[in-house]
Amino acid sequence: MAVLSSEAVVLRTWPVHEADLIVSFFTRDYGRIRGVAKSALKSRRRFGGALEPMTVARAWFAERPRAELVRLDQLEIARSPLSGPVDQARMAVLSFYAEVLDECLPEHDPQETVFRLLLSVLEQTTAVEPEPAESGAAQPWMALTYFSLWMTRLMGLLPDIGHCMACGELLHAAEVFFSGFTDGLFCALHRNGSASTLSPDSWQLAQKMLRAPASAFAGERWPRRRGQDLRRFTLQALERHLEKKLRTAEALGRLGG
To answer: CA dist 40 to 21, 35, 73, Å?
Structure first.
């Protein structure tokens, strides 16, 4: 039974037996995997501090014949989300990343583009910014917006956002609408009665984000309300695909995210 190794990000953990944990982790080379970490709650040498969600680590694990779970032997921390300032908003955003990836990604299916997306938004989410000065903590709304938009696209749930889904005509910033029941964006003529407006700033922002890395937006001011309607649009698409409500999205909603 060969031991495999890969760069990985911890998604979730569940207790099992007295000191063992089931760990869901997303690897660069092997995709999303679930494994048993024996005595994880007791072994600081093999897992100390590395089992927090969104911890980036080097993972060593072994696949067992006919077993659903791998044997997770060790995690060596490369970057921890707890190494910088912690606030409620940032922790809610990190939990959202973990839930979306754990629910959306098939097991044992390498997703290099998604992995690179995750690393880029983690860097922006955990970066410490000088504003607001009173808290000194990172404001994660840009990274959350970028992640939600790109995950929707990478899951194949984001049609051409430059044209109306119904008629194919070019959209104009002042008249862009989305529905909670259908993918894509619509013009004023073809919106339905329950359609919501996507603001000109959010529509233009989405087009920019699909052409540039997350780091390109790092220097911009991101108040809580900026991109809020864009995040709602992408969240609705993800939840339609999953056919369930995302628990962490409710927590973000309470924070105004």
So the answer is: 6, 12, 9
